[in-house]
């Protein structure tokens, strides 16, 4: 199982994620590319640290929404969105390659991630942006999402993702953040869910039902309070359960 976290979610003097602590235990780093968080200095620093630790670097692309942290719904024309996705990937690629590494995958953030689960046009625009940026990049997304369907159609590798600290609807999608219980705060429960994803291939939904989830990567949100300690616990529990924690192939 790959273990990923959102990193580089700072801007100027403002810091949100504990990047160094998270890079010590994750295998893939979703690096903010400046549209919901992050700036040139932050991207460079995270890429340098990830490369030094052998952590895979991914571009976490977003709607242009610094004030809303990329979590506000936006209607962006498809051609514009494709160009902005390519722009973000290209910016991160400079710093990844300067660090002796590369951008290996793309993962949308926040509102864009949720929109591309069902919206085929926005999903297609993201994939067009990935292709425009060049390179054979994998795409991380929710199992069954239009994003992964479009990625597969474009000949890109798809990586199904599960969320250790987010609640699921009976349909297997994420409970919107504005609803009660959308984020799982109990650390013991996050750890149990993580092992459930990796070993039993299921999660208990918000209604108490059992939801099958087949995923190759597990996300722990970097902006969750105590995220680094939680990620360490998740990794230890996975390894204790006999799960090899490594970057996806």
Largest sheet: 7 strands, parallel, barrel
Provide the structure class: alpha/beta
The CA-CA distance between the termini, in Å, is 10 Å
Low-pLDDT parts are none
On the 0-100 scale, what is the average pLDDT?
95
Which range best describes the helical content: under 10%, 10-25%, 25-40%, 40-55%, 55-70% or over 70%?
A: 25-40%
Number of helices: 8
Integer-rounded radius of gyration: 17 Å
- How many beta-strand segments? 9
| CA-based shape | globular
Beta strand %: 15-25%
**SSE order:** EHEHEHEHHEHEHEEEH
Strand arrangement, largest sheet? 1-2-3-4-5-6-9
Structure description:
This protein has 249 residues and is an alpha/beta fold. Helix content is 40%, strand content 17%. The chain is built from eight helices and nine strands. The strands form two sheets. A seven-stranded parallel beta barrel has the order 1-2-3-4-5-6-9, surrounded by six helices. It has a two-stranded antiparallel ribbon with strand order 7-8. Strand 2, helix 2 and strand 3 form a beta-alpha-beta unit. Helix 5 packs across helix 6 and helix 7 runs parallel beside helix 8.
